[in-house]
Amino acid sequence: MTEKSKNTRMKAGMKSFLGGTILTDERFTRQLPFISLLAFFALALITNRNWSERTIRQIEVLQDTLDELRAESITMSAKLMDASRPSEVFEKVENAGLGLEEPKRPPEKIVVKKNR
Length: 116
Description:
Number of strands: 0
Helix content: over 70%
Distance between the termini: 121 Å
Structural class: mainly alpha
C-alpha cells in the first residue's frame, strides 16, 4: 500500500467515526455485545474500587477508635489496680468510719465430722 492510500483510508475512517456512520456499520454492530460487556466490567471495576476505598477509610477510623479505647482501658485498669491495693482499701475503710479492722490472726479452718 502506498502512503497516499493509507492517508485517504485514515481520513475516511476518521470521517465515519466523527460523522456517526460507524455506528451503523455491520462490523461495529457485531461487536456491540462485547463492547457492552467491557463497559459493564469497567463499571464493576470502578464500583469495586470505590467500595474498597470506603471500607479502608472505615477500617482506619475504627483502628483509631480501637487505639483510643485500648489506651483508656489500660488507664482504667491501672487505676483499679491502684485502688484495690490492701493499703488503699484499709485507708478507704478507715476514712469511711465503718468500724472494720484487719484480722490479727489467720483464719481457722472449720472441720465438721459426719455422724454415721
